[in-house]
Amino acid sequence: MPPAATHSSPTTLPATPLTPIVLVTFFASLATGVMWSGLSFIAESVHGYGRFDNFLLALSQGVSYVLAAFAAGRVTRALERRLTPRSLLQIVFLVQGAVAMLPIFFGGVWTLWAIAIVVSMASAIQWPLVESYLTAGRSGTAMRGALGWWNVVWMSATAIAVALIGPVIDAGLTTWAFALLAPNALLCVAVVSRFGVAPGEHVHDLEAPVPATYRHQLASVRVLLPTSYVVVAAISPLMPYVTGAFSLSTKESTLITATWLVARLVAVTILWRTRGWHGRWATLFVAGVLIASGFATAVLAPAPWMLVLGLAAFGLGQGVIYYAALYYAMRVGNAEVGAAGTHEGLIGVGYAVGPFIGLFSTIAAHDDLDRNRIFVVAIWATMALVAWPAVRPWVRERQRGAAVA
Q1: What secondary structure letter does DSSP report for 9?
Q2: How far apart (Å, rounded) are the C-alpha atoms in residues 309 and 236?
Q3: Distance, first Cα to last Cα, the chain
Q4: Which of these, 21, 290, 271, 295, lies nearest to 154 by C-alpha position?
Q5: CB neighbours of 218 closer than 8 A, spacing ≥ 6?
Q6: Cystine design at 306: which of 51, 221, 239, 301 (Cβ 3.0–4.6 Å)?
């Protein structure tokens, strides 16, 4: 969803340097980690939220993100005559910083909901703009190198944020944890001033033609990626209660929760720096198995070590799916990446579907163990529904190969 570059006189806009983009990504991702993975712990510890309330809060985040993501393109185009993309990005950060200050001046749980919804909607506009600055003006090899560093940075930041939120809650400083998002947002505004007035011009990838299997695998992974985010959004609000079954402190719970984020970072780093997985269907198959089995193991774990093992497996699988989707989209070419805003919205659908399944499992049973079992079955059923669309590209490739032979 790159905004039109109508605010600069040169006919060719250069790429924005990678350093300010990476810095903004790191600071903004600290807030993302708190809001998407740490918020459930804050709601449970500070406001006494149970499973139903936390899933409802997460559902509101997901729906807000979806609505904003699908509207972001129209909003950006409507504002581009009055605001440069750089100015719009700075305004988005200022809005997040302002709403983060609410708990300091006002009491009540409504501030939690206000922060969750506003930051979610702002993120749906923020990240496509950042990604546009990251990729525009860079050719295929340079673009993928920049994306590799960018992914390592944002995934590291989210893991750090989740690991730190536990000690903050235990110290009774939750209000200030939100308040610190305000200077963090101001820091982002300052760094964004080093961006170009608009993203650079897109350049064509002059690399060799891509193998046909890449197109088939891109079609498959574009089904798997939103599905993996259904599982991400399903498990995040549940973590305070999964870890609570083992009488862990909030600090220990958030550290364990960060396991899947660290595992995802490891998977993405390995795939970024290696080539043996390119074009191999087995990579996607193993990743899908890791997500399904890791999720079930984590939710139904009878011991903390099994919880850690399940989260690690899930994180590895999700990281593989995420980076494979990114790699094949970039490798196939610019024409295949044109619907970035819609793609972001589809991931947002995952953020909404996951908590909805969580609400269903919570209502369907009274015992937590039964709820968890229903939860796993419902998630697996969702994954089964998308199994054929994900497998169909592989079947078509095999059929065409057999016909040629």
Answers
A1: S
A2: 16
A3: 41
A4: 21
A5: 325, 328, 329, 332, 336
A6: 301
How many Å apart are CA 155 and CA 22, to the nearest integer? 12
Express each pLDDT in 317-369 by its tens digit.
Answer: 999 999 998 888 777 755 333 445 555 666 778 888 999 999 998 998 888 88
pLDDT beneath 50, residues of the chain? 1-11, 335-339, 405
Contacts of 12 by beta carbon, 8 Å cutoff, 6+ apart:
200, 201
- Show contacts of 271-279: CB within 8 Å, 24+ apart: 271/319, 271/320, 271/323, 271/324, 271/327, 272/148, 272/151, 272/152, 272/323, 273/148, 277/324, 278/214, 278/327, 279/211, 279/213, 279/214, 279/217
Only one residue has tokens 């953020």, namely 351
Joined together, the tokens standing for residue 299 give: 């939710």
Based on the number of CB atoms within 10 Å of its own CB, is 12 exposed (0-12), middle (13-18) or buried (19 or more)? exposed
Our measurement of the distance from residue 44's CA atom to the centroid of its chain's CA atoms, rounded to an integer in Å, reads 22
